[in-house]
Design a protein that fits this description.
Order of helices and strands: HHHHEHEHEHEHEHHEEE
Helix content: 25-40%
Shape: globular
Number of helices: 10
Strand content: 5-15%
Radius of gyration: 17 Å
Length: 269
């Protein structure tokens, strides 16, 4: 894709979820429109900053757990978002230099920064797919060029499923992706949740901004994504409470803060 056609796909007139999240975790890949809605939401619900930061730390701990304790050497990160510090490949390859990682997003702003995700150890490999969560078969087929789908894969879907308005459709997409992965694969999910009035108000303000909507869900709905899988302890919990004590080689330990975001890791039997 040419730089001109890529720029044509980037809309800077409306807030954008990847840029908005990037602003909240202290990144620089955002525009004034993203910072404006970010500041508005901070005034409504300052706790969303903690959600962004602790969700990122959960990513690091979960990837390190899979690489170190479960021997996972392949990761499929769907809904990648903008690269920041301690991306999936950086955490995984610190533990296992031969790890392979495929990032998936269909967002032009993420595609524009994809080269930052393509660094790798000499022993490992990273790839970026301009592909869509709504087409799981195409995602799996393209990922198979880099990953051996006969061996366990860590499927990461972080802060992404909230963009799927219909809950049952979101569950179906997760099932389809997991169906294409072998036994011993793991599903890692985190999403913001409707667990406080502040988070609900923040979600409503964000959705009213013209950005692609993000729907916060109940905790039992997050748990429903893991149906048929073996939940790893401590189960479905706040992102700050998932194994926060380890050094994990991750983006930092969990704080135990009562944030409005839940997560889980499940193993395919």
């Amino acid at each position: 894709m040419s730089d001109d056609s890529l720029r044509d796909r980037i809309d800077t007139s409306k807030p954008h979820s990847a840029r908005f999240w990037n602003y909240f975790v202290g990144g620089k890949d955002n525009y004034e429109v993203d910072r404006e809605i970010g500041d508005q939401i901070k005034s409504i619900f300052p706790g969303l900053v903690d959600v962004a930061v602790t969700s990122r730390r959960f990513l690091g701990r979960a990837v390190a757990y899979l690489a170190r304790e479960q021997g996972v050497r392949q990761f499929l990160d769907v809904g990648t978002g903008l690269p920041t510090a301690d991306n999936t490949h950086e955490v995984a390859q610190r533990v296992a230099p031969d790890a392979r990682i495929v990032y998936v997003d269909n967002d032009p702003i993420v595609l524009a920064h994809a080269n930052a995700l393509l660094t790798s150890t000499p022993e490992g490999r990273t790839a970026y797919l301009d592909a869509d969560l709504y087409d799981p078969e195409a995602v799996l087929k393209a990922a198979s060029s880099t990953l051996d789908l006969s061996r366990p894969v860590g499927l990461m879907i972080l802060n992404t499923l909230g963009h799927v308005a219909e809950y049952e459709r979101a569950r179906a997409l997760v099932r389809q992706l997991m169906a294409g992965l072998p036994a011993g694969s793991h599903l890692v999910i985190s999403d913001s949740t409707a667990t406080s009035e502040g988070m609900i108000a923040a979600s409503e303000a964000y959705n009213a901004s013209g950005a692609v909507p993000y729907y916060v869900r109940r905790v039992d709905e997050i748990a429903g994504f893991f149906d048929g899988l073996e939940l790893v302890e401590p189960g479905v919990v706040r992102v700050s409470e998932w194994r926060p004590e380890g050094d994990a080689g991750d983006a930092g330990g969990g704080s135990g803060a009562a944030v409005d975001a839940y997560c889980g890791v499940g193993r395919k039997p």
